């Protein structure tokens, strides 16, 4: 079944500019045109769902492109999924610790937060994480990032 770009936009919930961007990246392909409007095989909906799932999980579009085969098929690397799941687990642990620290700070009986050992520990952890992030940001700012269509190029 062939779908018009408007049908794909309505059913997948992505704007036409995203469809064109995904085409440029080789993630999807139009099957042709009817007048000026792109036409897609209905398997594009499954491919768009796979792309959305991959993006939600934190995969880059290049990573996702490596997992897609023609006609909406997938070649998913299970080891890569396990590694991504481990990364997500680590992030959950870090965010849970931050949440717990913030809750403690909100309920801490100390008259001055800076006098609380647990609050001091929270600040040290934030400083260490901030220092690591600053080093990563300065290194990545040297790499020019490719813009999305209609967006100017930026430095990290």
What does this entry look like structurally?
- This protein has 156 residues and is α+β, with helices and mostly antiparallel strands.
- The protein has two domains: 2-74, Multidrug-efflux Transporter Regulator, Chain: A, Domain 2, CATH 1.10.1660; 78-141.
- Helix content is 59%, strand content 12%.
- The protein has six helices and seven strands.
- A hairpin with a 2-residue loop joins strand 2 (32-34) and strand 3.
- The chain is elongated and about 70 Å long.
Q: Kindly report the average pLDDT value.
A: 83
Q: Under the CATH scheme, which architecture of the largest domain would be assigned?
A: Orthogonal Bundle
The order of strands across the largest sheet is: 1-3-2
Strand content: 5-15%
Short description:
The chain is of the alpha+beta class. It contains six helices and seven strands; from the N terminus they run βααββααββααββ. Mean pLDDT is 83; it is low at 137-156.
Topology summary:
Blueprint: E1 2-4, H1 5-12, H2 16-24, E2 32-34, E3 37-41, H3 43-56, H4 61-67, E4 68-69, E5 73-74, H5 78-107, H6 117-140, E6 144-145, E7 154-155
Antiparallel strand pairs: 1-3, 2-3, 4-5, 6-7
